[in-house]
Amino acid sequence: MKLIIMKKSLLILATVATLTACSSESVRESIAEESVEIGFSAYTQKAVGTKADNSVGLEKYYTEFTVYGWKTVKNEETGANEDQMVFNAQSVKYVENSDSWTYSPKKFWDKVASKYNFYAAVPVGENGFSFDENAKIFKLDAFTATGKSLKVEEAQKPNASASFKTVETDFMIADAIERDMTTQSAKALVEFKFKHILSRLNIGVKCDGLEDNQKMTLNSLKIGGVKNSASFSEDGRWTNINNAVVLQNEGANGLSITADNQFVYQGLLIPQEAAYEVVSLDGTEKGNAPYLYINYSIDSENFYAYYNLAALFGATDGESLMFNEGYQNNLYITIGASAIEFDADAYVWQDDNSSNLEVNESIKEN
To answer: How would residue 7 be classed by pLDDT, with cut points 50, 70 and 90?
Structure first.
């Protein structure tokens, strides 16, 4: 059996939303003819490039996001600067079949404000982020990732796509923005760049070298030893990571494997380290680190194998595979009549490095 590993690193698209800000009622009344209404646009931007040539709409992920915002104004009596909230969990919604976003009630820039501060995330509220108004940070308390995968019928595509939506909630936070109102472009659109805080694992399977009358079937695919419980806050990131579980896509069981790559698993995971450990092919020694189990059949003959997950991405003794925030790891499995081949990517939209590993045997079930 032959195992070929290629490792790359690319940045998962960061989602970008644009937002403008607001004004007090008193200012709106006095400078009504000069007031500028807040408008929104939203798109997803990669690590490099411009909106025109390197973006996709935020609506590919979500059609609604939440904004918090403050303006800084001078107290008329004391002369001291004070912050006044103008957006309090404001819902901003996508206008279907357009490039527009809307919200209500409308807000306007305050001509006498010295600055604005904006914060945004998705989703917020029940089953989503909470927002600490004092620290100005988003949090997730006692979060458990299900590791659920796309349904097979949704996953049968030839290449991993940034717009794939998994069953797991895709949590995103925008970079906080401070707008200096003394600049010439103060009332320009405020650009929110949203980023994924989870990591993603994609696994694709295809067959190679079968006779025309042979049939290959995927019986089971599991990822064991993955930790799925943690807490998150913007100031401390992910903490209390624990509770190792076995993840699997039961919907892929019985899938007919073809010569075209099919993504049989696409799940969002809590960022964590997957260590290299020795794993026996028959699974009698699996260690404590994340591992891959695959069971398939060629006609009526069954085969199975266990692999250390980090090793499939080129890790060796003393090394690890990192499931980082905003990164996705892609594992492409090619099953032939005589060998299984792996082509593995760890990427975030820019090349990192490559490595190769060979495995020369597999286990046949009696």
So the answer is: very low
Tokens of 319: 């090394």
**Phi, psi (5° rounding) for residue 302?**
-100, 145
C-alpha dist (Å) from residue 172 to 48, 192, 237, 247: 19, 11, 13, 23
**Does the pLDDT value for residue 180 go beyond 70?**
yes
Give the model confidence (pLDDT) of 281-302 as tens digits: 999 998 899 999 999 998 888 9
Q: Does 353 have pLDDT greater than 70?
A: no
Residue 11, classed as helix, strand or coil, is coil
Residue 342, token pair as written in the block? 């792996």
Query: What distance in Å separates the CA atoms of residue 266 and residue 280, rounded to the nearest whole number?
Result: 25
DSSP state of 34: G
- Tell me which residue of 346, 347, 340 sits closest to 361, measured CA to CA: 340
> Which residue do the tokens 């996508």 mark?
94
Measured CA distances, 203 to 37, 166, 261, 343 (Å): 46, 13, 10, 10
Mean pLDDT for the chain? 76
Q: Which residues fall within 8 angstroms of residue 153, CB to CB, at 6 or more apart?
A: none
Distance of CA 39 to the CA centre of its chain: 27
Tokens 């189990």 label which residue? Answer: 293
Q: Which amino acid is at 55?
A: S
Per-residue tokens: 331: 């594992």
Mean pLDDT of 266-291: 92
Q: Which residues contact 159 (CB under 8 A, 6 or more apart)?
A: 261
Q: What angle do CA 150, 151, 157 make, to 5 degrees?
A: 75
